[in-house]
Amino acid sequence: MKYINEINKRRTFAIISHPDAGKTTLTEKLLLFGGAIQTAGAVKSNKIKKHATSDFMEIERQRGISVATSVMSFEYKGILINLLDTPGHKDFAEDTYRTLTAVDSVILVIDSVNGVEAQTRRLMEVCRMRDTPVIVFINKMDRDGRNRFDLLEEIEKELKISLHPMTWPINSGKDFKGVYNLFDKNLLLFTANTKASEEDSISFNDLTQRLLDDRIGEKDAEILREDVELIEGVYGELNEEGYLEGKIAPVFFGSAINNFGVKEMLDTFIRIAPTPRSRETSTRVVNVEEDKFSGFVFKIHANLDPKHRDRIAFLRVCSGKFERNKYFHHVRLDKDIRFSNPYTFLAREKDVIEQAFPGDVVGLFDTGNFKIGDTLTEGEDFYFTGIPSFSPEIFKEVINKDPMKTKQLEKGLLQLTDEGVAQLFTQHGGNKKIIGCVGELQFEVIQYRLLHEYGASLQFNSVPFYKACWITSSDPKKLQDFIRFKPANIAEDKDGHLVYLAQSEWFLNTERANNPGIEFNFTSEIHKN
Ligand code: G4P
Can you give the pTM of this predicted structure? Predict the structure, then answer.
């Protein structure tokens, strides 16, 4: 319990959204509140642009910048907030999923015009795997959106989560007049293109006051009174337990670009968002309040300079105190290592740090010791669970174009896949190497980096697989028989786990039906060899 004050001070979270819903804009506004940046536009210029879909050189350039924005730490009202960035580009979705293992809660941004979109659904599925608490921000209220009740219904149904409105909008689009804060019982008036200020906020202990009609007009005042009565009747007070269990999501309406409704959300966030939580490991639950240090690597970032292969491993501290120059136990390698230059992400002082506490993320310079999912402790042998590998969606066979560089190619493939850029599968009982990615863009990145960083040249040949399923069975004979009859579809992942590569959903369903004793999983825990 030595570090309880440090723990209680911290909130570690991520903002997630379908591309274009407003994640970058909202991030920027939060950083402005925290004093972490001075001008709007600072984060935006770092974003991987939409039109960069086939421009991997642009991605390369962004890779360097995005290290700096990977974790944004700032203080707001005495709370230390660690905001973990997630790439918006869909081809880097796996990176996002892994980052979500390192946060304690998320803010989900939904575009009020488009409602729930493909990536919103997938991200929420990942959140549900860990029951991550979610706050919803419905953005772009300054645009003609859908009926707010219909929107809430759609979100509840599609994302399978109960919602609890915390603010309530008065119209949308050009008629958008503001939001009523159901918790603080005040009205925040909206004027486009101006920052909401304290004067625009009016307290209402009683909504029947005539002042409401004066400010927003009789018709809208009447609608608001009816809406609020209905909402208060249906929802009552926010059930904070339900929120912390990931079952109920508080909802805010606003416009990120106008910095409207953002502060209301941030104030609620610091009040209710969870402090760093205890975590499951392979042997026991590690209580966040334990004095001994533990943490895990959730992301690895390659150095931009091709001459130096060192990388930055992002370590989430889970318990105890991380200290510079102290020896910690690398569980997978069974060796003790220390870090003389751990990197902090606290705004404006990107520098070496002496110590870090649960909820913090530390950047460790790495010369190849780490892969995603690695655990550091003060000696105990366990690894944090729930850091899965997800099934890729595109598969290609690796063809070595320069046999003189075979070693470099193999080394490069291993290192890039350790970073989580892609997944590597080797044909069971053979040598064929198959790379699996979420997006086409990653194949270009891999080809480019292998050539420039390792001098290896390769070609990718498409292979007709659509999903990788990790297969397990309590009956070894069943598994052996299955492998024997399907040699072309069986591979091993980097940790030697068996994988069935399915050509189509039809094949997968057929195999599932024909092999009841075998489990087909779309995710695999990345763990100790
Ligand atoms: P993302 O990170 O989720 O991909 O979204 P981002 O913040 O980049 O926002 C996507 C687009 O939506 C941007 O416009 C942004 O200005 C706009 N936007 C964000 N919040 C609001 C809002 O509250 N209201 C309205 N009307 N628009 C909003 P863009 O044209 O793509 O980029 P830019 O030229 O403005 O940079």
Answer: 0.86
